[in-house]
């Protein structure tokens, strides 16, 4: 049982989109082209463009490429035309891809929800491998495993459920849920984890989150694993493909600080940073994780 508690403590530390036009032969456009929408246009040769559709005819469409000029495309070369909700325009009129890992900082969650059908695979250091998917626009689940623990004997898996909602696109997001670590080792085994609530303020380009979690353990003698744990985390986009991440844990009067640089591609986010353990201000543990998201 000590092993279970130790592993659980480590865990604690450590698509309602607009549907595609269905084009395959260049014969159909969306029924209504709204100019304020950001459209994602994929050609049959695999090229992809994003922009505002400013004019259309039976054979062509003309798009504004957000400061890169205008382009006219022949419809018989177009594979699909969809509204792209994975990007947004900042105050300077620049287009930014949504953070593929916006629902988490390093380990602590944000209150931003996964969309229906949206899913990701995440690998945190060599420890935690996980898969998450949005069941609806407000409910998502996660499953995973702490791979090294398998070699210690027994089996383990992680489960989590989050219920989240956005009350204002540029303001408030709220979430609640649980994350649990399950361990089986012969006749011994158990479950430890935490129930949490989170509040996030901000947009995909800049946000911060307060989370509060109560640890628990499935032990016949006690279900209490310790005091309430709180985290304060932030994410600041400093470029089209770069963010700064800060995550700070408050555990029984002690503080664990961590920071990272997040590098982002079309569907991939990579975090490079470090963790300063409790009571060890001169020590830093390196941190590396990546998340691959399919929107």
In short:
This protein is mostly beta strands and 295 residues long. It is 5% helix and 55% strand. It has two helices and 19 strands.
Distance between the termini: 40 Å
Q: Strand arrangement, largest sheet?
A: 8-9-10-11-12-13-14-15-16-17-18-19
Instruction: Determine the mean pLDDT.
Output: 82
Shape: elongated
Helix content: under 10%
Radius of gyration: 22 Å
Description:
- The chain is mainly β and 295 residues long.
- It has helices at residues 2-13, 147-150, and strands at residues 39-43, 48-56, 60-64, 70-74, 78-83, 87-89, 95-97, 119-124, 128-134, 139-146, 155-166, 172-185, 188-203, 206-217, 229-239, 242-251, 254-264, 268-276, 285-294.
- A hairpin with a 4-residue loop joins β9 and β10 (139-146).
